[in-house]
Amino acid sequence: MRAIADPARLGVDPPDDPPMFLDRDDAGKQLAAALATYERSHPVVLGLARGGVPVAAAVAEVLKGDLDVAVVRKLGAPISDELAIGAVSATGHRVVNTVLVRKLGISREYLDRITKRRTDEARALEQRLRRGAPAIDVRDRTVLLVDDGLATGASMLAAARAVRDEHPRELVIAVPVGSREACEVLRAEADNVVCLSTPEPFWAVGVYYRDFSQTDDGEVQRLLEQARSRRAPTAPHTAFVNMY
Question: What is the pTM of this model?
């Protein structure tokens, strides 16, 4: 199995089937139905920035959970920043495609340099999206880690490992659509992986959405602020560093 990043750019036709989801909000509502059993645990729903946050916001609203953001940055190869060789969280948790790194002859010095740069970017983005608000403490809580889809799963893997270090009671990775390979790899990193669909072959995540418009900082900030306004004043809300 291999994920095909962009059918149009490769000169091949995408699937004939209609998109599975109208937009990220619709995907989140469908995903929430599959996660209904977690409502009783009052989960923390972490959306990978930026596109995963609208999906997570819909999940959090349906399940009456607490919404927060996870910030991770992809690591680009020297020959092209668009070619991902891994990912790093704002806490410095790095995931690297060692096979690709060896094939391209990428040095340790380059990896360390790009990791520091992307980690700094992730931390800055996290602060900007939260607008100074503290993060939710996930210790001893059920965490639903949500994105709009999984292709390689590198970003989700970095995010999951960073969340694990915060000692949640339970970690669940949840996505509307993903490659079978990525979903299987992530099962070793979480207590449960919920993926509504694993089409084969797997194309770009956006192929499975009717509207896959880019999510900007303003939309993420608005969703986080709306979620904070709904949160009870006594709800846990202490410092926690997130990722993507």
Answer: 0.85
Q: Distance between CA atoms of 199 and 105, rounded to whole angstroms?
A: 33
Bridging pattern class, strands 170-177 and 192-197: parallel
* Residues 152-187 pLDDT 10s: 898 999 999 999 999 999 999 999 999 999 999 999
> Quick check: is 81 in a domain?
no
d(CA 203, CA 217): 26
Give mean pLDDT, residues 28-47.
97
Residue 56: domain span? 7-74+131-230
The DSSP call for residue 209 is: B
- Evaluate whether residue 110 is within a structural domain: no
Provide the domain count of the chain: 1
The closest of 48, 158, 151, 149 to 96, measured between CA atoms, is 158
* 96 part of a folded domain: no
Q: Which residues contact 232 (CB under 8 A, 6 or more apart)?
A: none
What is the C-alpha to C-alpha distance for residues 241 and 69, in angstroms, rounded to an integer? 9
The DSSP H or E segment spanning 36 is: none
Say how far apart CA 31 and CA 59 lie, in whole Å. 7
CATH number for the domain spanning 208: value is 3.40.50.2020
Mean pLDDT of the chain: 88
Q: Is residue 164 part of a domain?
A: yes
